């Protein structure tokens, strides 16, 4: 009985993963407005009914896609305490991940850009950006408290600036990959923030 349940769960998880990957591919290729549950099912090799069973609606599918593409985007941060080291690793790792050109990261950037004019996407990405900024604020506050970051920093302002830069680099990479050499840029940008934020400028 336990084995049967596990197998069923594995099949369900495999189907959801395939459907989310198909949705990401379609978003990258043709944008959000052309996305339908039927097309996602067809791309993944399933019926529209299966897509509806797993997600219920296009809105929930996009919600799950947005959350899934952002989760684990920068590996190696779990378990690190808040502070300047985690902050700089996030910046470096984020730009490095952009260079991998995975369909999930490209889909997230397309969704994020379209959220500015799509009322269905806007609430999801406001929440995602708010969570991203909250994590950055936590790092900045911790760095100020332990003396590694400048005491005159305003965490919320630093967070807005970092998110803006990282997402802006991502959109440039999406539009013209040749113009954004991520392996060199990640070191330049990380060094810039280290100089700008650290106490003593070092």
UniProtKB/TrEMBL annotation:
InterPro entries: BetI_C, Homeodomain-like_sf, HTH-type_TetR-like_transc_reg, HTH_TetR, Tet_transcr_reg_TetR-rel_C_sf. Residues 13-73 form the HTH tetR-type domain. Keywords: DNA-binding, Repressor, Transcription, Transcription regulation. Residues 36-55 bind DNA. Pfam families: TetR_C_6, TetR_N. This is TetR/AcrR family transcriptional regulator.
């Amino acid at each position: 009985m336990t084995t049967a349940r596990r197998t069923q769960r594995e099949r369900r998880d495999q189907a959801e993963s395939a459907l989310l990957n198909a949705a990401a591919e379609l978003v990258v290729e043709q944008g959000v407005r052309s996305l339908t549950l039927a097309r996602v099912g067809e791309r993944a090799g399933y019926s529209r009914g299966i897509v509806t069973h797993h997600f219920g609606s296009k809105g929930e599918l996009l919600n799950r896609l947005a959350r899934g593409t952002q989760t684990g985007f920068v590996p190696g941060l779990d378990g690190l305490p808040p502070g300047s080291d985690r902050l700089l690793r996030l910046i470096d790792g984020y730009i490095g991940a952009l260079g991998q050109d995975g369909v999930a990261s490209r889909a997230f950037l397309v969704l994020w850009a379209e959220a500015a004019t799509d009322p269905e996407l806007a609430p999801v990405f406001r929440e995602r950006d708010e969570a991203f900024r909250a994590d950055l604020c936590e790092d900045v506050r911790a760095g100020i408290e332990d003396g590694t970051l400048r005491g005159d920093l305003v965490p919320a302002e630093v967070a807005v600036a970092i998110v803006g830069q990282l997402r802006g680099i991502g959109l440039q990479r999406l539009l013209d990959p040749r113009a954004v050499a991520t392996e060199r840029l990640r070191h330049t940008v990380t060094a810039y923030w280290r100089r700008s934020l650290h106490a003593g400028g070092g």
